[in-house]
Amino acid sequence: MVKMGKIRFLDKETINKIAAGEVIERPASIVKELAENALDAGATEIGIEVRDGGKRFIAVSDNGSGMSAEDARVCALSHTTSKLSDLFDIRTLGFRGEALASMAAVSRMGITTCDAEGEKKGAGMELAIEAGEIKSEKKAGPSVGTRIVVEDLFFNTPARKKHLKGAEVEFQHILSLVSNYSIAYPKVVFRLVSDGRQAVVTPRAASMRDRITTVWGADIAKNLVPVSYKDGFCAISGFLGKPYITKPDKSMQVIFVNGRLVKSETVSKALAEAYKTMLFLDRQPVCALEFEIDFSKIDVNVHPQKNIIRIEREDLLYNAVFEAVKSAFAAQNLVPSVSPDNVTRSRAVGQYGLDKGTQSTLSARTGEAVAHAPATADAQARLESFMPKKLGQLFMLGQANRTYLLAATPEGIAIFDQHAVEERVNFEKFLSQVKDSSVQKNSLIAPIVLNVGPAKAAAIRQNMESLERLGMGIVQKGEATFEITHMPLLLGIPGKDLAMELIAAVEDSRGTLEERIEGKIATKACRASIKAGDILSMPQIKELVLRLDACKKPYTCPHGRPTGIRLTYADLEKKFKRVE
Question: Which pLDDT tens digit goes with each residue over 294-306?
Answer without folding.
Answer: 888 876 554 444 5
